[in-house]
Amino acid sequence: MSGRESAARRAEELRRLIHHHERKYYVENAPEISDREFDALVDELRAIEAKHPDLIAQDSPTQRVGSELSGDLPQVRHRVPMRSLDNTYSEEELREFDARIRRWLGGESPPYVADLKIDGAAVSITYEDGVLVRGLTRGDGEVGEDVTHNIRTIRQIPLRLYGDRGTDVPSLLEVRGEIYLPRSSFARINREREEAGETPFANPRNAAAGTLKRLDPAETARRRLAALFYAKGAIEGVRLEGQWEFIEYLVRLGFPVNPGSRRCATIDDVIAFCEEWREKRRDLDFDTDGIVVKVDPWDAQERLGFTAKAPRYMIAYKYEPERAETRILEIKAQVGKTGVLTPVAHVHPVQLSGTTVSSASLHNEDEIRRKDVRIGDAVLIEKAGEIIPQVAAVLAEKRTGDETPWSMPKECPSCGRPVERRKGEVAVRCPNGRCPGRYRARILYYGSRACMDIEGLGGKTVDALIAAGLIRDPADIYGLDAEKVAALERMGTKSAENLIRQIEASKRKELWRLIAALNIPGVGARTADLLAAEFGSLDALRSASLDALESVEGIGPVVAGAIVEWFADPDDATFVDRLVQAGVNTKALPSERKPKPVAEAEASRFAGKTWVLTGTLGGFTRADAEARIKALGGRTAGSVSSKTDYVLAGEEAGSKLDKAKKLGIEIAGEETFVRWLEEAEGGKG
C-alpha cells in the first residue's frame, strides 16, 4: 500500500472517530475520551490534510471554521417555506384548537407531539447524501440568508449524518431547528464585552441572531452557539409516518433534539405537559416562552393544510409573561419617528426574562391615568410578547404618600415646540417635521431589523453620533468616517469598522427593506414587499399614480394616498435623492420580483392573475398550490376583493367563498384547478 493510500485510510478513520466523539460530547453529553485525546485526533487529521490537501473532505471536522467572507450574505430561496405559527394563551384555547382539528379530520382524534418553544434564531439546514451543504436563516419565510460558514462552527450540528446512504441516510434532508446562545455563554460574552468597553448584548436571542449573520466564522466559533432540531423541510429517500418518528430519526442521524419533546395521546396530555414545564423551563440553559403543539401523523398534517399565514396542524401555547417588581424613578416623554410622544417609565434596574430592564413603556397619557401610575410607585413590569418591557400593574398598597402624579408635557421635550392632540385621538404629537427627537427615532427605525438591518446602530450609538454632530437623519449615516466614529466614547476602532461595514452592506439590501425604512405612513414590511414586487424600482414607485397604487392587491386608497403625498413632499423627496446619491440599492433583487409569465402560460388562467385559496385541499398542500400558481406567472393573496381573478375552493371553504360568490368571481374546485394546471403547464393555454 502506498503512503498516500495509507494516509487516505487513516484520514477517513480519524474523521469517523472525531464525528463520533463530537456527538458523544456535544449532543449526548457522555464523553468517552479526554479533551487532550480528542485534540490529538484532530491534530493528527490536520497534519495528514496539510501533507495531502487533496484528502480534505467537505465534511472534515477541520473545516468547521473557514475563512472570513466579504460583502453581503447570499440570499437563497427555501425549498419549502418556513411558516410562522398561530399563538394561544390558555387551556381553553388549546381545547378549541383540538376541537377544530377533530372537526376538520371528520371526527378523528390524532395524537400530538409537544415540545419546548426555543427562543433563538430559526434555521434550515440541507444535507445531500448525508453531507451538510447549506445552512439558511429563516429570513422572510420564503428566502433566507446563507450562513453555512457559521453553521459549520456549531459542534452540535453534524457535518456528516450517521448511518449508511441508501438505508438510513436520506438522499436529501432539509432539517429545521433553532440556533441559540446558552445562558451560560451569554453571561460570559457580556462580561468580556464590558471588560473590553463594548456594549453588552440585550438578550440571548438577539445575540444568537446577530452572531449567526457575522461574516467571520472564527468569531462565531468563539461565541459557542448551540442548536436543537425539531422539524423537516424537504426530504427524499426515506419513508416516515409522523412527527414523533421524525424526531427519533433525527436522534439516530446525530442531531441534538429538544429535551422536552413528548408524544401526547390526547389534548389532556398536552395540557399536562404545558403545566409540567411552566416552572421547570426556568432551569434550562436556554430561553423558552411556550410549547409548540403539532398533530403527529404527517398524512393528517397534509389534510389539514395551511391558512394564509400558518399551518392548521400546529399551534404555539405561550406562557403568561414573566413579571418583576420594581419602582418608578421618573417618567419621561419620548418622541417617536412620527412625532408621537410616548411616556416611558425609568425604573430601578431589575432582571426580567434573562435581561436587565431599566425602562418600561406606559403607552400613552390615557393609559397612565387609567392605571393611576405615579412617579415613585412600586409596580410590576412584564415583557409584552417577551420583548417590550411595559408596566403591567401598580402596587397601590405599597404607596407611602410621597408618590407624584405625572402629566404629558405641553412642549416637545426634544425641540420645545407646543405639542398637539388631534380631536378623537389618544396620541399627543410634536408637529415639528424637523424635530431632532423624530430624526433620532427615524434613524433607529431605518437601521432596525425590520428595515435595513444595520447591526450596531442602536440607541446609545445613535445618541453618541448625534451628540458629536456626525449625523442628523438616516441619510447621514452613509457619510460616516470610521476614524471619527472610533473617537466616540466606548466605541473603539474595531466597533467603528464593524459599524461602517454594516452600513456599507445595507446599500445592497433588498428594495422592500428600503421602502419600509422610508417611514411612509401605513407602509410596513409586508406592504413594502408588495410594492417592491409590483413596481420593481424606487423610481417607478415614486412616480406611480394613485390609480396605479390602488390597483396593487393589498394596497387600499388610504395607503395609496399616503404614498403619493409622501413622495410629493420636498423634504422627503430630497431625503430619497440623498440615499440614491449614497449608492443605496433602489431596484428589486431577483428574489423580490414578480414571476414573469412564461410563454406557455401567456393565454392561461394564471399569468398575471390573482388567486385566493380557501378551504382544505386534498391533493396537495396550500404551499404547493401557491408555488404552482406563481411558477405560471400568477400571484396569490390572502383575502378576496374586486381585484381577485379566481378563487380555489377546497373542503370547508368559508367566508372567502361566500364573498367571491357575491362579487361574481370565478371559483374553481380542486379537480378543475388540477385540469387548468395541466393545461397551462402543458402549453395548451
Overview of the structural elements:
This protein is an alpha+beta fold. It folds into five domains: about 5-65, Helix Hairpins (Orthogonal Bundle); about 85-320, DNA ligase/mRNA capping enzyme (D-amino Acid Aminotransferase, Chain A, domain 1, 2-Layer Sandwich); about 325-400, OB fold (Dihydrolipoamide Acetyltransferase, E2P) (Beta Barrel); about 435-580, 5' to 3' exonuclease, C-terminal subdomain (DNA polymerase, domain 1, Orthogonal Bundle); about 600-680, 3-Layer(aba) Sandwich (Rossmann fold), CATH 3.40.50. Helices cover about 35% and strands about 20% of the residues. The chain is built from 24 helices and 22 strands. The strands form six sheets. It has a five-stranded mixed sheet. A five-stranded antiparallel sheet has the order 14-13-12-16-17. Helix 1 runs antiparallel to helix 2 (about 35-50). Residues about 595-605 have low confidence and may be disordered.
Spell out the key features of this protein:
5 domains; Helix Hairpins; D-amino Acid Aminotransferase, Chain A, domain 1; alpha+beta; OB fold (Dihydrolipoamide Acetyltransferase, E2P)
Domain module tally = 5
Query: CATH homologous superfamily name of the largest domain?
Result: DNA ligase/mRNA capping enzyme
Write down the overall mean pLDDT: 84
Cα(first) to Cα(last) distance is: 64 Å
Rg over alpha carbons: 27 Å
Topology readout:
Elements: H1 3-27, H2 35-51, E1 75-77, E2 87-88, H3 91-104, E3 112-118, E4 121-128, E5 131-137, E6 143-145, H4 148-151, E7 172-180, H5 183-195, H6 204-212, H7 217-223, E8 226-236, H8 243-253, E9 262-264, H9 267-280, E10 288-295, H10 298-304, E11 314-318, E12 323-335, E13 341-352, E14 355-361, H11 365-371, E15 374-375, E16 378-384, E17 388-394, E18 404-405, H12 436-446, H13 459-467, H14 482-486, H15 493-506, H16 511-517, H17 525-535, H18 538-542, H19 546-550, H20 557-568, H21 570-581, E19 610-614, H22 622-631, E20 635-637, E21 646-649, H23 655-663, E22 666-668, H24 670-681
Parallel strand pairs: 2-11, 19-20, 19-21, 21-22
Antiparallel strand pairs: 1-6, 3-9, 3-10, 4-5, 4-7, 7-8, 10-11, 12-13, 12-16, 13-14, 15-18, 16-17
